[in-house]
Design goal:
globular, ABC transporter involved in vitamin B12 uptake, BtuC, two-stranded antiparallel sheet, mainly alpha
Length: 327
């Protein structure tokens, strides 16, 4: 019965998501496209940053590799083979990155991941601009003929990312990752191969992130290095995961919904307000303030906090019933 109840909310959400394209305008379909896309990338990041406890701030590296792999190959080998190549190359690139960065811990690991993403940004902008077209931008072949179909592409990607992360999180691998998050040294003493499992989580995360980058590029139609390798991509994924709740199954989706709708509302509300200067910069400031408030008052995130509250409530009710039965 409890397992059936746990699936009620996801099924209802899927029903709502299936109805939206027939009732919403193309503008709002695009908003949901970005919700689904970044929720999917958030699920991928959550494997490393949430369950394994490794704060990666450079996931834009895999996002950009996937985007440019797809953009460069789609017109030569076809859309779906290019998407597969984006997934493979993102995964392969994660191996050396993980082997290098996982030698470090805590803030040093986070700084190393930022450095990798920034290095790739510089290379794509300058050293390899003959291939990437640098800041001039590179045209990208679309995946589907009708732009409104990207809604379904992103929804399918999010479902795939959720299914994979849910499968891993509830398996032996997920428990090992959580043990590493809580105390890596203790996990090693009980014979958990911590470097292997961290690398495994990163490889799966990079694969999904690369696919997300390819879908992003196809929908955008043209990309520049700053579109896919910038720290803004990494930060957005981290922000929505923290807001929704790291180490929770539904946290990235909840965070993506809140941040994307907040972003849309802020842009409309702040446009034309002269004293603000750049509305996007002010909106980014408000994002930061929101994250600070969540970390201070809801350190487990929205989903994590609500889950703890609900479990506590159920425990109190059961305790009261037990006491009443004993009396």
């Amino acid at each position: 019965m409890n397992r059936i109840r746990s699936w009620i909310l996801p099924v209802l959400a899927l029903i709502v998501f299936a109805v939206i394209p027939f009732t919403a305008s193309f503008y709002y379909q695009q908003i949901f496209f970005y919700i689904f896309l970044f929720a999917g990338v958030g699920f991928a990041w959550n494997l490393v940053g949430g369950y394994a406890g490794q704060l990666s701030l450079g996931h834009a590296a895999f996002f950009g590799i996937g985007a440019y792999t797809y953009a460069l190959l789609a017109q030569h080998i076809g859309v779906w083979p290019a998407l597969l190549a984006a997934a493979v190359l993102s995964t392969v690139s994660a191996a050396p990155i993980g082997l290098i960065c996982f030698r470090l811990r805590g803030p040093y690991f986070a700084l190393a991941t930022i450095a990798v993403a920034q290095l790739l940004l510089v290379l794509a902008t300058n050293q390899f601009k003959d291939l990437t077209q640098g800041a001039a931008g590179l045209l990208v072949q679309g995946m589907v003929s009708d732009p409104s179909l990207y809604y379904w592409v992103a929804l399918g990607f999010m479902i795939l990312a959720f299914a994979i992360t849910a499968l891993l999180a509830t398996s032996k691998t997920g428990y090992y990752l959580m043990a590493i998050r809580e105390d890596e040294d203790t996990a090693q003493t009980v014979t958990i191969n911590t470097p292997l499992y961290k690398l495994y989580a990163l490889l799966v995360s990079a694969l999904l992130t690369g696919v997300g980058g390819a879908i992003f590029a196809a929908n955008l139609g043209t990309i520049q290095p700053n579109d896919v390798f910038s720290g803004a991509i990494s930060n957005q994924v981290v922000f929505l995961s923290i807001l929704g709740g790291t180490g929770t199954l539904f946290g990235p989706l909840v965070g993506a919904v809140i941040l994307e709708f907040a972003s849309d509302w802020l842009k409309n509300a702040l446009t034309g307000v002269a004293w603000l200067g750049d509305p996007n910069a002010f909106a980014f400031f408000l994002y930061g303030l929101l994250i600070v408030l969540v970390v201070m008052f809801m350190p487990a995130g929205i989903v994590g906090t609500l889950t703890k509250w609900w479990k506590g409530r159920v425990a109190r009710v059961q305790s009261q019933r037990t006491t009443a039965a004993g009396v």
